[in-house]
Here is the input.
Amino acid sequence: MMTIVFSLFLLTMLVIVAVAILRTDNLFTAVMLSGIFSLIMAANFFILDAADVALTEAVIGAGISTVLFLSALALTAEHDRSPPVGTWVPLLTSSALGGVIIFATFQAPRLGDPNAIVHQHVAPWYLEKTPELIDVPNVVTAVLASFRGYDTLGEVFVVFIACIGVMSLLGRVRPRRESIEEDEFDKRTDNLRHHLIPRVVGKMLVPFIVLFGLYVQFHGDFGPGGGFQAGALIAAGVILYSLVEGGPRGRELVPEWFSSMLVALGAFTYASVGVASMAMGGRFLDYSVLSHDPIHGQHMGILIIEAGVGMTVAGVMITIFHAFSRRGIR
Amino acid sequence: MELLGLYNYFVFAVLLMIGLYCILARTNIIKSLIGLTIFQSAVFLLYISMDKIDGGTAPIIQEGVENQVFANPLPQVLILTAIVVGISTTALALAVTVRIKEAYGTIEEDKIQEMDREL
Here is the structure.
């Protein structure tokens, strides 16, 4: 009963925050509200028994997405100057869409119905066969990394290509020694070095965030977590350091050649596991042949590809952030 | 009680409406992109709502606990990766927006169209 009340409260909050985002003219407010929106959404996912998704949404939606939007705002405009006219057509279109969907939901199975069609086909098979074929406690990791490894490989390459797109749009200047004096250096970059509390607290948090990221990476088979969450967490730690100390010092911590190399190396690691399993007589991304014992092979395959996913995601997030922050100093 | 079980879907529909309205009615590109992320989140909410089973728990198998009911892992896998892909594509869109600002000096769609017409 408590869960239902809490769930209703969170869902209502979601709608309120979304309306507030729509109404505000200040883009800074809108971006901050969208961070809150993502955090409430993460809490909602947690109530709906999706621990892995909640972790991902909290790191990416509330954390990295907000930072990226703010970096884009710093380079564009702070106010939304949309004219107030011509709102009839969008209003009509969106209400028509909403009306049709609400009408359709009356046919949908109610929340938590165990006889709903989604729970009848392949999902019970995954839950039943995971202990026997893969033997990792977290079924989400098993499905993500092994049963549906092709999908995940595709997703990793989509992220990889998006990163290449951002790099080619915002430019990646050849790394050169930045020989500017300390004072000039601080003046030219927006950072929090002169604010004592964010600087001390922020820097203290960075190692713990990265440590937690590594825990999530290697504990992903047993609890909520995995490469996607871990990569984003580690990137969040590096981004926090860059925000506190300024972009140039962040680029000293993780140089751009290193982060862009991580992007390629991660995707390469993932694909080469597939090729290796083909070379050892199995199918593409069939980890069972990697070791003499099929289950041991599965464990090994999942560990390696999760490491690849983590490297790519961390690299992509750091590279994109650097691309935006470097654009600012020019 | 019957309607309470559909509340998640209603919120999905309302968020979808808000997101679509934000994309269509606002000419500011960044505001439209925020609308797009709301639209996207609404779809995520729909998928995750479908995975819930009454009395269930997160799909992590524990040793020595019998007769557990688990939530459906499949929608979770799909949405987990979709969130990461979503942020990458949003970043790409933001990069395009930054280039538009540099080329036109504004990120309002109507002003950009006027400038294009003058050419």
Summary: The radius of gyration of chain A is 23 Å. Residues 132-173+185-330 of chain A form one domain.
